[in-house]
Specification:
- This protein is α+β, with helices and mostly antiparallel strands and 456 residues long.
- Helices cover 26% and strands 29% of the residues.
- It has three domains: 261 residues, Glycosidases (TIM Barrel, Alpha-Beta Barrel), CATH 3.20.20.80; 89 residues, Immunoglobulin-like (Sandwich), CATH 2.60.40; 86 residues, Sandwich (Immunoglobulin-like), CATH 2.60.40.10.
- Strands 1, 2, 3, 4, 5 and 6 form a six-stranded parallel beta sheet that branches. Strands 9, 10, 12, 13 and 14 form a five-stranded antiparallel beta sheet that branches. Strands 17, 18, 20, 21 and 22 form a five-stranded antiparallel beta sheet that branches.
Length: 456
């Protein structure tokens, strides 16, 4: 529905194809969304030649009004502005409309669209924000400014063209939360996955749909449905969920399963418990697990874990296979401090939260090892062993005989697991000797009690 296709010549509209599509949708009880009133491409020459701001606004008003009024009551939502930002940047694209009207063209477009159809929902459409944190922030700043100015933006349409990989877990949730906080609806508008591997393609589709549903997205559209009529920038890729013969691909089943997992539960999830191994194993080296267990109540289809109220982990859950559910998140090398964790389980019926579990990380010197020797014959050749049965682990050891280092080496820390170090000594002179072991980590060292070694 971009400008060059609906009004290729000034005053000459071509609605034949659109009329057929809208009629087909109505016949089959399908919703229709209008796309691309203003886009970063597809402006006819008579529009690109306009240099006067008043003339440009008049052209926008005439075009929007003609198109939107024709489908009044038949198309109830529109992408008013698409791809306002640079694809690989954080600034507004220098589009035809930007060149004439400046950054205010976006507000102009939405106000003109609202006047043309006061009842339609008006969306701003953007790409690649799920992969670029700087662009994501720039887009949020743009939206915040538009809302503050009272511009009639109703929602955000995320394109979600994924290439080889999907967004990191939690990014969709972060975006949806930030846009909804501004009072905006959020939809996924152009989902497809460009890759050569059907298995990874299916995984990406499933992950995106599952997280989007859990985040509260209620409208998801794909950028086509069959690879027979695909568009891709990756030569040979087949990005859609049906193949060229209209057969379902693994991606189709992944999307179906994500939808089923979300909608099948008939009640909000039960209240899960949250536990941690940090009381024992997280106090020295910052390595510990947070585990969620649900033993009764309805299952969740999605799990989110928050650390000090910041989302740090999310994953899909199987809400069909069993009423019992669990999820484990491992942390490593956490800095000293107090970490409070809470989790949410989500399905189509609601969200439930766990109680908080707290991990206090204190990086300390190792616990004290104990030393033993196998020197029964007293011949001056023996193996010395240092053992830490349990406690704060070390990353290195040293043996001392009469205060002189006689053996060193590295240790693998996995607090509070057992650690053992050995050294073989030979040719020790006759007499009484004092043997100790020193266990060390970045926070300090601890020396064992002295053991007397007698050599005849």
């Amino acid at each position: 529905m971009k400008w060059a296709f609906t009004q290729p010549e000034e005053g000459v509209y071509d609605f034949a194809g659109l009329d057929r599509l809208v009629a087909f949708a109505e016949e089959h009880d399908m919703a229709v969304k209008g796309h691309g009133l203003i886009s970063s491409c597809c402006d006819p020459e008579y529009v690109t030649s306009i240099t006067d701001a008043g003339e440009m606004r008049a052209a926008m008003t005439e075009h929007f009004t003609t198109v939107m009024e024709r489908y009044d009551g038949r198309i109830d939502r529109w992408d008013v502005v698409s791809e306002a930002l640079e694809s690989q940047g954080t600034t507004l694209q220098s589009t035809t409309f930007f060149k004439v009207l400046g950054p205010g063209y976006i507000a102009d477009a939405f106000r003109i669209a609202r006047a043309a159809d006061p009842d339609a929902k008006l969306f701003i459409n953007e790409n690649l924000v799920e992969f670029d944190a700087a662009k994501r922030q720039a887009f949020l700043d743009l939206l915040t400014g538009l809302v503050a100015e009272g511009v009639p933006v109703d929602g955000v349409a995320l394109q979600m063209h994924e290439t080889f990989a999907g967004p990191l877990p939690g990014v969709i949730t972060e975006m949806v939360d930030s846009y909804r906080a501004l009072g905006l609806d959020v939809e996924i508008a152009e989902l497809d996955v460009h890759t050569y591997d059907p298995v990874s393609q299916a995984t990406i589709y499933g992950d995106v749909v599952a997280e989007a549903l859990a985040a509260g997205v209620t409208e998801i559209s794909t950028w086509g449905f069959t690879d027979k009529h695909l568009y891709t920038w990756l030569p040979g890729a087949k990005p859609l969920i049906f193949d060229e013969e209209y057969g379902p691909k693994p991606a189709y089943f992944a999307v179906r399963d994500a939808l089923q997992q979300f909608v099948t539960p008939t009640a909000a999830p039960g209240v899960a418990s949250l536990s941690n191994t940090g009381r024992k194993s997280g106090l020295s080296d910052g390595d510990y697990d947070i585990k969620m267990n649900l033993t009764k109540g309805a299952p969740g289809s999605y799990y989110r874990l928050y650390e000090n109220d910041v989302l740090v982990s999310s994953q899909r859950l199987d809400s069909l296979a069993t009423p019992r559910q669990s999820a484990t998140t491992s942390f490593s090398g956490k800095a000293e401090g107090k970490y409070r964790y809470r989790a949410e389980l989500i399905n189509s019926q609601g969200v439930t939260s766990t109680k908080t579990t707290t991990v206090l990380v204190k990086h300390l010197a190792p616990s004290r090892p104990a030393v033993s020797v196998d020197n029964r014959d007293g011949d001056g050749t023996f193996v010395a062993t240092a053992t830490l049965k349990s406690g704060i682990n070390a990353t290195s050891y040293a043996f001392k005989l009469d205060g002189r280092i006689v053996g060193t080496g590295p240790l693998t820390a996995a607090t509070p697991n057992k650690q053992t170090a050995k050294v073989s000594l030979t040719g020790i002179a006759a007499g009484r000797h004092a043997l100790t072991a020193v266990f060390a980590n970045t926070k300090g060292s601890t020396e064992s009690r002295s053991v007397t070694v007698r050599v005849r």
